[in-house]
Specification:
Blueprint (H helix, E strand, L loop, with lengths): L2 E9 L7 E4 L13 E2 L1 E3 L4 E9 L3 E7 L8 E2 L9 E4 L5 E5 L2 E2 L2
Parallel strand pairs: 1-9
Antiparallel strand pairs: 1-5, 2-3, 2-6, 4-5, 6-8, 7-10
């Protein structure tokens, strides 16, 4: 199975650092110590990263404000959120809006 590049973009305010932790090795295998730091894109106003995944792989992830689950993303009213999920495909761009964090 071929590897494909997937770009993940996150819109969030009130932080200068964001991380992704997820279900694949290149997203830390759910270990926040191995979470991937996102880069801030001045031109698009979002935090971004591009990673390679095996085409057709289902990937799950969460957004963190720091490398700990104590800073995991929350919903508009502070509620727990389901994992973000996508199936890796060539040229895929995943966009996520984050409204709150646990801390």
């Amino acid at each position: 199975m071929a590897n494909v590049k997937v770009t993940i973009k996150v819109a969030a305010q009130g932080t200068d650092k964001l991380y992704l932790v997820g279900s694949t090795a290149n997203l830390g295998n759910w270990d926040p110590k191995d979470a991937v730091k996102l880069e801030f894109c001045e031109g698009c106003g979002m935090f971004t990263t591009t990673k390679q995944f095996a085409e057709g792989t289902t990937v799950e992830f969460k957004v963190l404000k720091a490398k700990t689950y104590d800073s995991v993303e929350k919903g508009t009213w502070g509620e727990e959120l389901e994992n973000h999920t996508f199936v890796a495909a060539k040229g895929l761009e995943v966009k996520v809006d984050v409204f709150n964090f646990a801390n």
